[in-house]
Predict the structure.
Amino acid sequence: MTRAPIGVLASGRGSNLLAILEASNAPDYPARVALVLSDVEDAPALDHARAAGVDALYVPPGPRRARVSPETEARMVEELRTRGVRLVALAGFMRILSPRFLDAFPNRVINIHPSLLPSFPGLEAQRQAFAHGVRISGCTTHIVDAGVDSGPILFQAAVPVRDEETAESLAARILAEEHKLYPRTITALLTQELVFDGRRCLFRPKGAPR
Amino acid sequence: MTRAPIGVLASGRGSNLLAILEASNAPDYPARVALVLSDVEDAPALDHARAAGVDALYVPPGPRRARVSPETEARMVEELRTRGVRLVALAGFMRILSPRFLDAFPNRVINIHPSLLPSFPGLEAQRQAFAHGVRISGCTTHIVDAGVDSGPILFQAAVPVRDEETAESLAARILAEEHKLYPRTITALLTQELVFDGRRCLFRPKGAPR
């Protein structure tokens, strides 16, 4: 079986990167991580990648806080394209990507977010959900668009909030679900056909009639 | 066992009223419906109530579209209090209640909403969720405050959205969960102690130390 090369962008510890690397150890997993990019030079994610024998590059983000400079974005696209990357997974990547980057991989830049979107977009989603008093939270994989956590939803997993919960225990149980949901989402995108119905994302067997 | 008298407010078919009436047929259910009020004279909910031997009153809402007149609200409070009502459950009641009404039953006016709040408040929540493309929706019981579907959350139930779903099939499966969640919420409010942690609603055995 040919495994599709994918890229991962991470700014921090990259626990979702680890989950993807672990999933890709299975011989029938349809993806292999071909490149990890980070805007943070000492991000543990880069170490994890190198330890797994995966190319890992620090890409200096430039002067802006929330975005990557156009020059660096262009370099990121080039490095990903050079390796034939078919899917780009954000794993705790803390900057907003421009349409120039997103258009280089149409509907193939994805993210995972620790809430049941559209509830609680943005930072500290687990803490937002906890403080709001929801009884069910979870995580969401979605296609990245120009907004913050606003793109079409791919998959979601629910996590019940317990009475004796803290924000930290909730975040930990959501993270455990993330580590299952993200590899599953990548599998679906590489082995099935994504069909849009408005902003609904549906999956069909490849080559099936629409 | 003494059963607590509760009131139900409904504007339409009142399928959640039927679920509550059915639950209260069990001899150990902690509530009995003492009064059903409707702002719609020919609401089927009134017929359901009368068929079950429950007092049922039409209360003319007055000239405003989204609210009930102060005179009618005062009468509603009086009718509910006369019957010793300890909990008021909205079941498809389509008007916003004023603080005057809510303050007559502090933290004891509750509602059920067909989404996982805070996602998709307001009308046609099931259709909103379907069009947005969420993979998990559900229903929420909450304390009614002066906003629209904005009060503290009591309980939630998740309903997965299937690929082959329509907005109608999703609404039907959410409704089936509503019919379980609402009686369960009423039981909790009448048999346990509600404790607030910020806007989190927690339930404790009655008389337990906080």
Residues 1-106 of chain B form a domain with the Rossmann fold fold (CATH 3.40.50.170). The helical segments of chain B are 15-23, 44-51, 70-82, 99-104, 125-132, 167-191. The mean pLDDT of chain B is 96.
